[in-house]
């Protein structure tokens, strides 16, 4: 007798395999459970790329629609979560590529960025001044992350926003562990270089 | 100078660590309803319209360019005299050719 998988609260689905079978057969209850189980992961992954909650939510819907449409293509070669992360990353990168990058849009984003940052910075009993400083640092870092090349940005975002281990990042990106370690190292170097230039200008 | 460099490095460290404070976003409780709605709409996101302007713009541009070429080309290649040309235009639009000199003839 197989042990019930605690991930799947519905007692009907005892294993990931039976859950996937239910999804492939178009079972609505199974799909609802899929959304419930993975929505936070998808939302935070998309947020890591979009840095705007509304856009991340919109993209999250796109991801699940794509999951629903493509589930019959899922061959079980990876975990379901890995496959869903890949779709979320792919959709996010698609969205970024299709965006028209204008200075005016970047300026507007920096105006609303403060508001968005307040959602993601925990207070931890900090003073308002400290909180504001934290928010500003997050915005600066988010802008620096946007300048990274796609692979570095993806690896950094999955690790930092979704707190995936390097091994998990490697599975999502279909790379080796050393390759992910290299990407993360280069991402951090590039971010620090960018931040150095920003803060050097500020202090002059 | 050293102090400045130390301050910059401190700020960089704090900035790199700023996402460690990151509070995970919680999902929207109405997400499933929205997804269902989107699927019944044919899976079209509210941003789907945004690609139409980017498609229409180049089409319009090419269309306008072709119209301009079609209009200007005869003017550039026209070898007949001005009078013949005016006559041709007049015939096309059912107009009468007025000689310019008449306009200034106040007698």
List the helices and strands and how they pair.
The complex is a heterodimer of chains A (204) and B (107).
Chain A: H1 16-24, H2 28-50, H3 53-70, H4 80-98, H5 103-120, H6 128-146, H7 150-160, H8 166-173, H9 177-203
Chain B: H1 2-17, H2 31-40, H3 51-77, H4 82-92, H5 100-103
Describe this entry's structure for a reader.
The complex is a heterodimer of chains A (204) and B (107). The longest helix of chain A has 27 residues. Chain A is an all-alpha fold. With 107 residues, chain B is mostly helical. Chain B starts with a helix and ends with a helix. The model of chain B has no long low-confidence stretch (mean pLDDT 75). At the A-B interface, helix 2, helix 3, helix 6 and helix 9 of A face helix 1 and helix 2 of B.
Key features of this structure:
heterodimer, A: 204 residues, mainly alpha, 9 helices, 0% strand, elongated, disordered N terminus, B: 107 residues, 5 helices, 64% helix
Low-pLDDT stretches of chain A are 1-11, 114-120
Whole-Å distance between the termini of chain A?
A: 69 Å
**H/E series of chain A, N to C?**
HHHHHHHHH
Q: Mean pLDDT score of chain A, rounded?
A: 84
Strand content of chain B: under 5%
How many helices of chain A? The count is 9
**Low-pLDDT regions of chain B:** none
Name the pair of protein chains with the most residues at their interface, and give those residue counts.
A-B, 40 and 29 residues
The oligomeric status of these chains comes to: heterodimer
Helix content of chain A: over 70%
Q: Mind telling me the C-alpha Rg of chain B? A: 34 Å
Distance between the termini of chain B: 89 Å
């Amino acid at each position: 007798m197989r042990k019930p998988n605690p991930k799947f609260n519905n007692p009907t689905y005892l294993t990931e395999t039976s859950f996937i079978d239910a999804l492939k057969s178009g079972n609505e209850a199974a799909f609802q459970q899929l959304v419930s189980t993975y929505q936070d992961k998808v939302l935070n992954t998309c947020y890591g790329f979009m840095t705007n909650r509304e856009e991340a939510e919109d993209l999250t819907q796109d991801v699940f629609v794509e999951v629903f449409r493509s589930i019959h293509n899922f061959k079980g070669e990876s975990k379901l979560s890995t496959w869903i992360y890949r779709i979320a990353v792919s959709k996010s990168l698609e969205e970024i590529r299709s965006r028209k990058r204008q200075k005016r849009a970047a300026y507007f984003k920096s105006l609303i960025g403060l508001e968005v940052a307040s959602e993601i910075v925990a207070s931890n009993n900090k003073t308002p001044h400290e909180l504001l400083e934290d928010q500003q640092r997050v915005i600066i870092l988010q802008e620096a992350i946007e300048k990274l090349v796609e692979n570095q940005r993806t690896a950094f975002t999955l690790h930092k926003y979704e707190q995936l281990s390097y091994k998990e990042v490697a599975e999502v990106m279909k790379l080796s562990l050393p390759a992910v370690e290299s990407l993360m190292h280069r991402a951090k170097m590039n971010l620090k270089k960018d931040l150095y230039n920003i803060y050097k200008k500020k202090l002059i | 100078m050293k102090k400045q460099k130390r301050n910059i490095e401190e700020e960089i460290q704090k900035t790199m660590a700023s996402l460690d404070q990151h509070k995970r976003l919680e999902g929207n409780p109405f997400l499933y309803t929205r997804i269902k709605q989107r699927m019944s709409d044919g899976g079209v996101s509210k941003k789907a319209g945004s690609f139409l302007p980017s498609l229409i713009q180049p089409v319009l541009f090419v269309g306008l360019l072709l119209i301009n070429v079609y209009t200007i080309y005869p003017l550039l290649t026209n070898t007949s005299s001005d009078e013949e040309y005016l006559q041709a235009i007049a015939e096309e639009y059912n107009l009468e050719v007025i000689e310019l000199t008449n306009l200034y003839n106040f007698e």
